[in-house]
Amino acid sequence: MQMYNVKQKRGSSRYLTISIFLILSFFLTSPPTFAQDTNSIDTLRQMGKAFASIAEKASPAVVGLKAERTVTQQYSLREWPFGDSFDPFQDDLFDYFFRRSPRQRAPQREYRIPQTAQGSGFLISADGYILTNNHMVGGAEKLEIDLADGRKFTAEIKGADPESDVAVIKIDAKDLPYLELADSDKLEVGEWVLAIGNPFGLSHTVTAGIVSAKGRSDFRLATYEDYIQTDAAINFGNSGGPLLNLDGKVVGISTAIYGSFGNIGIGFAIPINMAKAVYPQLMKGEMVERGFLGLVPQGLTISMAEQLGLKDAKGVIISEITEGSAADKAGLKHNDVILEFNGKPVESEDEFRRRVAMLKPGTEVKIVVWREGKRKTFTAKLEKRPPLDELTGARPRSLEELGFTVRNLTDELAERYGYQGQTGVIVGPVEPGSRAAREGIETGMLIVEVNLTPVKNTREFDEAIEKAKEKGRVLLLVSDGRRRRFIELNLPKD
Question: What is the CATH number of domain 59-289?
């Protein structure tokens, strides 16, 4: 026992010596933990200072916006008329689209309702020009602007473009701070961005996040959609405010959030390059002129690409060409696949439409197509795009009488909205606050029947509405792609 104890002590001594050596070696060769923590904290501190610097320089050019208007609306007698109005003038646009639900029919009464929308904007010139969202100022009777220094102004709407959701307003002032505009095409997913605005009326709130995605579309909020997705907190009242890069330059206009109760980490902004393409015309009070080829592009599927002899499904196939249009004059044909437009690959149908529309009429463009197994290049001179109502076949009169427009169901629209093999007319823009909107009619719905009679095009729809006006009411059978239901509307009698 004793011998054993002596040997054990000697062994323990050796182990202790080795352990001390290893510990000393670790501390001599590795930086202390507290040093690593200090480096991390310093990095975070520098990042915070960078954000603070951007906010300090940019905030004076961000404005608070209050838009006012008065509307006449009908409400059920059992509804409180001054709340839950389901109008984008009160809520952010996504809230309006995602929260709407059909109302039960009940006795109606008309009220004149004052509505107020609070949002944001930002100065782009020293003499008072401000960029914001069209959905914030469209239809406004009065616009009040609050500057960061406490001054208040009444603004004038210089121009608004619903198709891009961009608007320009102006205040009468000079020597104002303003923001520089970046090149949003250079923005990359993962970059840090800051959003400044007035969420819930809290002036000049700054939030930070990253670019989560680019090229988001198909929300049916505007004709041309190419949203930047970010997790920088965007809430009600941020609409129209700037999204900034780390250089303090504007890369986007905060526009919408996904959800009904505020920020959940999914916000959307219009790329500033889209605004650059339209705001010079809006500043002058002019209508936005867009380039027009006169063809109907359609996205490719993998099976279609294989059948055409293509390696992938990138590009768009021409499903229709207007006779005498720019595309027709250039020599493009039905079934051509557009691979490149002005030297850049074509990725999708929506992207192609945007790129054409952002160019001015008269611009010459080079188009590379795939035809009969070969690449061919054509040059086209863009024409002026016709008005949207004329282009889509929408009936403006329907907007006044019904609260919405309709358009013919083309193959492209049937595929886009999921109505393949069906007949009817597609619902276009819906007037906010109209009876149709309150009953749940939405853009993109399919009207299958009018007064129990099937309709196949806008002509048949108009004829059926004319007959229905004799009784002052119409019964519509509508589909949203999942289910069908009947909706009854009042009509003005002739």
Answer: 2.40.10.120
Please report, as a single letter, which amino acid is at residue 306. E
Burial class, 108, CB count within 10 angstroms (exposed 0-12 / middle 13-18 / buried 19+): middle
- Can 494 be counted among the known catalytic residues? no
Q: What is the pTM of this model?
A: 0.67
> With contact defined as beta carbons under 8 Å apart, do 429 and 395 qualify?
no
Catalytic residue among 85, 91, 120, 135: 135
Quick one: three-class SS letters along 325-355?
A: CHHHHHCCCCCCEEEEECCEECCCHHHHHHH
Collect all residues with Cβ–Cβ distance below 8 Å to 403 and sequence separation of at least 6.
430, 431, 434, 435, 436, 437, 441, 489
Report which DSSP code applies to 181.
Answer: B
- The closest alpha carbon to 355, from 369, 370, 340, belongs to 340
The CATH architecture assigned to 291-384 reads Roll (2.30)
| Annotated catalytic residue 325 | no
Question: Is 135 a residue of the active site?
Answer: yes
> Hey, which of 118-132, 135-149, 379-393 has the most confident mean pLDDT?
118-132
Fold exhibited by the domain 388-490: Pdz3 Domain (2.30.42)
Q: Which residue in 85, 120, 164, 239 is the catalytic one?
A: 239
- Catalytic pick from 95, 146, 165, 350? 165
DSSP symbol at 101: -
Residue 427 host element (H or E): strand 425-430
pLDDT at 451 over 80: yes
- Model confidence at 36: pLDDT above 70: no
CA distances for 394 relative to 387, 391, 398, 425, angstroms:
10, 8, 8, 10
Element housing 276 (H / E): helix 272-276
